[in-house]
Design goal:
435 residues, alpha/beta, Rossmann fold, Nucleotidyltransferase, domain 5, six-stranded mixed sheet
């Protein structure tokens, strides 16, 4: 009988990660501070599970937001810790290692989700899940685990209100999940003197987010951070009943390849109530018109005015009609917009409006996330914020609300002859609603 060979992997888990390595639960989420070693722990979880797997051709992976990021943060660790188990040298072009039991471990980027389709996983790690494209987990990765009952681990550091925060909150008291939050002040990974030095160099918000794992810290440069903080403190982020006697207005940001965003808003006296939100991309205007009509039937409300940015007047390449004319044929009479306001004027109008605004966090979950994360561009060279906003997945939802703030809510947007003020004046009930 051949003698069993013992192979030693050069990894000793930090105490904060021992419970993670010991768990037998299929799903896990780890919220951990910077430099805690979460990626190292995840890589070694993959290696241990891969070499122990009894299924034919075991397949494991780590997915980062970008392939280049996966290579930067995990490739050297994967090679280092798996080396005693190699069957062949690592394949750097595919970021893949093959183990001597036939298992493979590979690194991927969520920026190319199509590279994942058609395969399977026995186990997978999603690193910095909150920065990934929407649908990577639910549409692509989760089905890859189904037939072989694979497991998944989500790891990351908070970065505002995003999908990672939503997942963390949704798994509370769920026995199917292993959950742990590893903070720098209790993990014993970074010494106290270094943490004190870091606090001198970092803003309180940065330290709370990066080292103390706070999801609630405002994103640096976020335009509406102070207004949303007050809304939260005053209880204005809460479930909102629909007032059937008040019309629902919509406010849009137009796109096709980028996200198209629509807010649904009721005005009661001086209060503004954000009662619903919808977004999608790569859809025709008919899709969004259907959504508007379907919500009217489902939520039993009546519409007021529909507010659009100035580019609603643009003619599409595949149509002789402008967007304005197309929407009219679909049963949506768009309010003809004023010329595009200065961006900072629009942001300031929205800030003023938010000071008397309520928002429903369930129906407006994605819209609220966008408002929290809509921010100024950062000039890394000059170390200052630019005068331009950051154009990303959050800007469309925020700019849609700008349309409403400038066209309905801000007196500066009313034309000289008062036409807009007369058109949009709305009767208010005698008393204001509150929770």
């Amino acid at each position: 009988m051949p003698e069993l060979q013992t192979l030693e992997i050069p990894y000793a888990p930090r105490m904060a990660f021992v419970p993670f390595h010991n768990t037998k639960r299929r799903w896990a989420i780890i919220v951990a501070h910077r430099r805690s070693g979460k990626t190292t722990a995840a890589i070694n979880k993959l290696i241990k599970e891969a070499i122990a797997c009894k299924l034919p051709q075991p397949r494991y992976g780590l997915i980062a937001p970008f392939r280049s990021q996966a290579k930067e943060i995990a490739w050297k660790y994967l090679q280092l810790y798996s080396e005693p188990l190699w069957s062949t040298p690592p394949n750097e072009s595919e970021l893949r290692v093959d183990l001597n039991n036939g298992a493979t471990i590979r690194l991927y980027g969520a920026d190319n989700p199509d590279a994942l389709r058609g395969a399977y996983f026995d186990g997978v790690v999603l690193d910095e899940y909150g920065m990934m494209r929407e649908g990577v987990w639910t549409e692509i990765v989760r089905p890859m685990l189904a037939d072989r009952h694979g497991w998944a681990v989500f790891i990351g550091t908070p970065k505002g209100a995003n999908a990672f925060q939503t997942l963390w909150r949704s798994t509370v008291n769920n026995d199917a999940w292993f959950r742990t939050m590893i903070k720098a002040d209790t993990s014993l990974i970074i010494d106290d003197a270094e943490l004190e030095d870091m606090q001198e160099d970092m803003s309180p918000e940065e330290f709370d987010q990066e080292m103390l794992c706070s999801f609630e810290t405002a994103v640096r440069g976020a335009y509406y951070a102070e207004q949303l903080r007050r809304m939260d403190a005053e209880g204005r982020i809460t479930s909102i009943p629909i007032d059937r006697g008040v019309r629902v207005h919509t406010a849009w940001d137009l796109g096709r390849r980028d996200y198209m965003a629509i807010w649904f808003i009721q005005c009661v006296g001086r209060e503004r109530r954000l009662v619903d939100y919808y977004e999608n991309n790569f859809q025709d205007l008919s899709h969004y018109a259907d959504v508007v009509h379907d919500k009217k039937r489902a939520r039993n409300w009546i519409y007021g005015d529909h507010f659009f940015p100035h580019d609603i007047k643009v003619h599409m390449l595949d149509s002789k009609l402008s967007r304005l004319e197309t929407l009219r044929t679909l049963g949506i009479e768009a309010s003809y917009p004023l010329e595009a306001p200065n961006v900072m004027d629009a942001i300031n109008a929205t800030r003023r409006m938010l000071d008397r605004t309520w928002i429903d966090p369930m129906y407006c979950e994605k819209g609220l996330e966008h408002l929290r994360n809509f921010r100024a561009d950062w000039d890394e060279g000059m170390r200052v914020f630019k005068t331009t906003y950051r154009h990303d997945e959050h800007s469309h939802g925020a700019r849609a609300l700008d349309c409403f703030a400038t066209q309905y809510d801000d007196p500066k947007s009313v034309s000289a002859d008062g036409r807009w003020r007369r058109r949009f004046k709305e009767a208010a009930p005698p008393s204001s609603w509150s929770a």
